[in-house]
Design goal:
This protein has about 525 residues and is α/β, with parallel strands linked by helices. It folds into two domains: about 150 residues, no CATH class; about 350 residues, Rossmann fold. Helices cover about 50% and strands about 10% of the residues. A five-stranded parallel β-sheet has the order 6-5-7-12-13, with helices on both faces. Keywords: Membrane, Transmembrane, Transmembrane helix.
């Protein structure tokens, strides 16, 4: 019986340690990302049908909902309705830019464009078939497998610079994907089944420990290294990138042919990178951020496809005070999507790919790109810290004044506000500091800060650490598993109070907890 109790004590101790580690890692930003994809034997992955995920960062707060077909659209059934008479149906293909991975649907260029045309009395349907991390080859395979079901009149491709490298790879960060050879033949066949993430992989601890491929980098002469996705910016790219570029040109030609086989016009709208729109003050030697964009433009023209070219409108808008991209994230924000929608609207109407407007409908301009009007307010989300501050102030202030009734009530609330102000100012300052460095280094900075704090706590505890370890060992060996949670809480609180009493700099942060 004692052996069972000891085992239970060890299991409880392990569970407590795992819980603390899980909570800490999630606070440090190591929570596993929300996913809405599943394995697809031909495409590598596809979006799950009828799914809902929430994505949040310091720059956006987005909910992505898919319909019965696994699209970010409005199909309520797996049966695709027949195209209404006189309606032009457009099929938009691309990656996270097309899907709208960082904007709500009301801010996504796909939905902005469709609603604008419909308000003008034009009979247009736009189907959003964008999927995160898809490259041009996956868009081509998707079109071949599903395109005919939608009976499109227009097929539009929205490639980004990272398409180029992955168009010549059989995997994407460890995930199998389609691969076409230099002759344009699909050689990948049925892809290996992707192992599910499982419960452990869904934890922050599992996310940290699981083996995952990182974005590979390539050494570029004396300029150091860059990610393989960005090597197409080089004016003299290495041989593997040249192969990927040639493969990309071939895939654009095959998409044009596949679209025409469906009786649809093919349009290419390459999305430029932020650096191509707002060039940084210094560029690495031998690079041109607009080069990948131009590659798609040239490939489209060589394939006889129509184009919509947002680079110059985005540059003009940025020069007029617009902010088309997020600061840290590389995607277009709500302003950028608005500019892209206006560019597409103008170009596709000029190309005669859109039915005429209603007789009494006035043309709708989504964005004034000539600088005659100020840009719309930059999107942002309401910060949560004021609500936390007020809530904690009310709760802790009440507890303090009720505990120390001999003090003035106003003075008690003022003291609590001061302590909370120090804590929140420090936390917000650290958050801002982390936000201005790349995410990887931000996480390292945060981990280093946590390690420094824990080291400081252990230093202040001194010999008491040994006493704590002996006490934990004694309770475990005696099989007092039912007391382990209570013991852990008491030792934690006691340790924090000891540190607070010995350090006036740390005391405000610790006392605020109580």
């Amino acid at each position: 019986m004692k052996a069972i109790n000891v085992l239970l004590a060890l299991l409880v101790s392990f569970g407590l340690a795992f819980g603390v580690a899980e909570l800490g890692l999630r606070l440090l930003g190591f929570a596993p990302p929300a996913i809405n994809t599943e394995f697809d034997p031909a495409l590598g992955w596809r979006k799950q049908a009828n799914s809902k995920i929430h994505r949040e960062s310091g720059e956006y707060d987005v909910t992505i909902v898919t319909d019965a077909l696994g699209l970010r659209d409005d199909f309520s059934s797996t049966e695709i309705p027949a195209k209404p008479e006189g309606t032009t149906r457009m099929l938009f293909l691309g990656d996270s830019f097309t899907l709208g991975y960082t904007v709500e649907r009301e801010d996504l260029f796909v939905d902005l464009l469709e609603k604008a045309w419909q308000r003008e009395g034009r009979q247009v349907e736009i189907i959003n078939a964008g999927t995160q991390a898809y490259s041009t080859d996956q868009a081509l395979v998707w079109l071949g497998e599903h395109g005919a079901k939608f009976d499109p009149d227009v097929v539009a491709l929205f490639p980004y610079e990272n398409d180029i490298w992955w168009n010549a790879q059989a995997t994407y960060l460890g995930e199998g994907k389609p691969l076409f050879d230099e002759s344009g033949n699909l050689v990948s066949g049925e892809l290996p089944v992707r192992e599910p993430r499982g419960w452990f992989g869904s934890t922050a601890v599992g996310n940290l420990l699981r083996k995952s491929e990182k974005m590979p980098r390539m050494k570029v002469g004396d300029a150091g290294s860059m990610t393989v996705e960005q090597t197409s910016r080089l004016t003299a790219p290495p041989e593997p990138t040249k192969i990927a570029e040639e493969r990309t040109r071939l895939l654009v030609k095959k998409m044009a042919d596949a679209s025409r086989a469906l009786g649809a016009e093919f349009v290419v709208c390459p999305i430029p990178s932020r650096e191509a729109v707002v060039a940084p003050e210094t560029l690495p030697a031998g690079t041109d951020p607009a080069r990948p964009y131009q590659l798609f433009v040239d490939a489209a023209k060589a394939a006889g496809a129509k184009t919509s070219l947002p680079l110059e409108p985005l540059k003009a808008a940025a020069a007029s005070g617009w902010t088309p991209y997020y600061g840290r994230d590389f995607h277009l924000n709500a302003q950028g999507n608005l500019i892209l929608a206006e560019t597409l609207k103008t170009d596709l109407e000029t190309a005669g790919l859109v039915p005429p407007a209603g007789a009494s409908a006035a043309p709708i301009h989504l964005a004034q790109l000539d600088g005659s009007s100020p840009p719309p307010a930059a999107p942002g989300k309401m910060p949560k810290w004021p609500f936390w501050f007020l809530g904690l102030w009310a709760a802790l202030g009440t507890l303090y004044t009720q505990t120390y009734k001999d003090e003035s009530t106003g003075l008690g609330y003022l003291k609590v506000a001061g302590l909370l102000g120090v804590v929140f100012a420090t936390a917000i300052g650290v958050t801002k500091l982390i936000a201005i460095v790349p995410p990887f280094y931000g996480q390292l900075l945060l981990i280093g800060l946590v390690i420094a704090i824990l080291t400081f706590v252990l230093y202040k505890l001194g010999d008491r650490v040994g006493t704590i370890a002996e006490l934990m060992k004694a309770f475990t060996l005696r099989g007092h598993w039912y007391l382990m949670p209570l013991l852990t809480v008491l030792l934690t609180v006691g340790s924090l109070l000891v540190v607070a009493a010995s350090s006036p700099l740390i005391a405000p942060f610790i006392y605020t907890l109580f």
